[in-house]
């Protein structure tokens, strides 16, 4: 069945109230649209964890820097609705920017520590925008569960932190990155890539896998692990934005991956003018 489309905050409040009256639990999947298999996996998991699934489709202007791709971010609302329908989504919230940021709007959410470094450093203001819109959505929908992809790993830690610190009460679920058959992490921004840039973009996942293999062979020094990933980026002619190994929970930088430690390698690089990110676990 086609999802119910909600456009205003008032419509969301009325819809959520009727759901609560029926005693139904809600799973929320916040997105910026141009949906792919990764988003669909979040929706399907939402359906396993709650009675009803809602998705939001909103290209949130506050999380884009002045020189970023807000104006050309890919959109396909009709296609997105069809994907939501086949993934069992009951309602789609697709507001205009003025519905979320009306005149007089003045509240922004800043998550301090886990927003530092990585994308937080390379994209100033990005996580403030993400934290602000996600807080609004969690406050509005009051979902039992909210699902996000691990592809945006630092974003996931930011959202877990704000949900905990602001007592929003959702169960924040991170789901594994969905990849193309050749290893490329699915992303709406892959639509920007030419065939050649897409081929070169495989170096992100290849680089992390090279680091995983090096760790498995006994090299625990993170500088050597970073170098292994970097070599793949360089061989493919990608411009590195960052390659780092961090603690998987706190995101604090690591010099070595200790036995039993859960670490994460996080990579950002440009293929042509398109900035791509990827990450995978490094098991100590
Ligand atoms: O990951 C995204 O698509 C966005 O950053 C999110 C979480 C929907 C907030 O706008």
Automatic annotation (TrEMBL):
Binding locations of ATP: 32-39, 149-152, 178, 186-189
Pfam families xrefs: Pantoate_ligase
Compartments, as annotated in UniProt: Cytoplasm
EC number, as in UniProt: 6.3.2.1
GO CC annotations, alphabetized: cytosol
Reaction equation(s) it catalyzes: (R)-pantoate + beta-alanine + ATP = (R)-pantothenate + AMP + diphosphate + H(+)
Coiled coil: none
Primary residence: cytoplasm
The keyword ATP-binding is assigned to this record: yes
GO molecular function: ATP binding; pantoate-beta-alanine ligase activity
Residues annotated to bind beta-alanine: 63
InterPro entries in the cross-refs: Pantoate_ligase, Pantoate_ligase_C, Rossmann-like_a/b/a_fold
Pathway(s) served: Cofactor biosynthesis; (R)-pantothenate biosynthesis; (R)-pantothenate from (R)-pantoate and beta-alanine: step 1/1
EC top class, as a word: ligase
Keywords tagged on the record: ATP-binding, Cytoplasm, Ligase, Nucleotide-binding, Pantothenate biosynthesis
Annotated (R)-pantoate binding sites: 63, 155
Entry keyword annotation includes Aminoacyl-tRNA synthetase: no
Sequence similarity: Belongs to the pantothenate synthetase family.
HAMAP family found in the cross-reference section: PanC
Complex formation: Homodimer.
Protein name, as recorded: Pantothenate synthetase
Species of provenance: Corallococcus coralloides (strain ATCC 25202 / DSM 2259 / NBRC 100086 / M2)
